[in-house]
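Q: I'm a student working through a structural biology exercise. My instructor gave each of us a protein and asked us to get a predicted structure, then write a short paragraph describing it. Mine is Dipeptide/oligopeptide/nickel ABC transporter, permease protein. I'm not confident about reading structure output yet, so if you can add a plain explanation after the tokens, that would really help. Here is the sequence I was given:
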Amino acid sequence: MKSYIFRRTAYIVPMLLVVSVFIFLILRLNGTDAAMSYLNASGISPSDQALAHAKEVLGLDKPLLQQYLLWLKKALTLDFGRSYITGSQVSADMAYYLPNTLKLIGFALLLTVAVSLPLGILSALYKDKWVDHIVRFISFLGVSTPNFWLALILISVFSVKFKILPPFGTGGLSHIIMPAFAISFMSIAINARLIRTNMLELMHSRHVLYANMRGIAKFQVIVHYVLKNALIPIVTALGMHLGELVGSAMVIENVFAYAGIGRYTVAAIINNDYPVIQSFILFMALVFIVSNLITDIIYAYIDPRVRLAV
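A: Happy to help. First, here is the predicted structure for Dipeptide/oligopeptide/nickel ABC transporter, permease protein. I'll explain a few features afterward.
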């Protein structure tokens, strides 16, 4: 198991290196002009001389390979350069916005588990009853409702109409509830449906049938023979949801004017701010890689068959 963890961890650096090369080339070969955006943000008329000077200031006048190697050399020391628009250190900005985003994502993930688990269990135990129909309807809404539209509805209801929660800004729990729910609603729906399907399949399996024939209490059968095994695929799903939650935060943070990495990055995309965009995509790649690694490790501990295969 230790060798497996070591091998998987060793893959992180080369994978991030490949991602960095890919995004570095895409940003510079996609037809956008960061120098023009820099001049527009500075209020300078984009003459040929001004453009040439801007490219020199931003380091865009050098060959692509040289630009990448200079960036990589600094990135290895966690120096991701300066924002083209604000001039501030990208690593310092990321460190400032990251805690807010982590709080939001952490609460959204907690909400996903706390809500989807009981919904999925109730839906399976009361199959084709009114509870099941309600949960299935919620699941349908969750996978078909755009999160930004849901965010606007939440603001309209809980902030404008009832004035219960603040519509915008960054602060305590009251500022996190609505954006976290908007981010996690789709994950809640998918997880609830997945738990229901897994439990129904296991409830008709042979080992559960034998447990019922032995006279084991129904509660023990559900908990020890059905629910425990049904949660194994959920671990994998949660690992995938973590990356999705971070991606969704880009949109939702802008709707709620929440000061997080997502809002910071969207502004950078609008202004072709290459250093910020590169740092965010590397962060996203790291989130996906680490979440998948943690998921595989947890999966191996839950399911002994996986552990033996490793």
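A: Here are two points you could use in your paragraph. The mean pLDDT is 84. The CA atoms of residues 232 and 299 lie 7 Å apart. It's a good idea to check both against the output above yourself.
Q: Great, thank you!
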